[in-house]
Amino acid sequence: MDDSALAAAIAEFEAARARGEYFPTAWFDRLSLDEAYRIQRALLARRGARQIGWKVGLTSQAIQQQFAVHEPVFGRLLDDGKMETGHVFRGDELIAPGFENELCIVMGRDLAADATPKDVAAAIDRVHPAFEIIETRGDLTRQLALALADNAQQKAFVIGPAVGRTTLPALDAVTVGVRINGNEVATADGTAVLGHPYNSVTWLAAKLAQFGEQVRAGDYIMSGSFTRQFPLARGDHIEAAFAGIGTVTASVV
Fold this sequence. Notes:
Helix content: 10-25%
Strand content: 25-35%
CATH superfamily: Fumarylacetoacetase-like, C-terminal domain
Distance between the termini: 43 Å
Order of helices and strands: HHEHEEEEHEHEEEEHEEEE
CATH class: Alpha Beta
Mean pLDDT: 95
CATH topology: Fumarylacetoacetate hydrolase, domain 2
């Protein structure tokens, strides 16, 4: 797709979104993943959204199996989507919502495209326990490119109090317990995230370089879910307790 065709596609996606069509049917099976990422960036820029970081998705085997996808993906975190633990969402403001339990890594300095996990460990400022709140605005399994153009299901992210780099436990050994309305629904550890959450960040650094972008100091990075994705309904209270990191909660009314 050349620049003029890409500009036309962006305009079509923008018009579709304005009428509530997030996965335009006219574009089913027509986009490459690279084209989808370029549309993702352009659509958010047109909305005037302020980006503060990145999400890496489809990192755990459980979630890859859930959506029949076998490679990570990325989306963009926006300033107006950052929430603090205990946040209460209104159900009528969410589209078929769900959540994932993740670590939110905040960078203390820039990362090169060829960064190693050791480089990531040295560049971190802090790590938060976190939820990603997603919206199922279309069929990710069958139309992954359209999901990426629509910012990879991203709606919001909720973070708890941070742990600084110098006192972090080994993130691959961190275990999480996930509860919905007081009932434990899943447990896992950091090895579920590409073997180690730092591997998620190195994947992102290398992938962004293909689009002329970079992981920067101050970026919030959602490393990917430890477990499968869970749906959210009105009345739900969710909690994820990460051993050695902390606990994050949220609710829907």
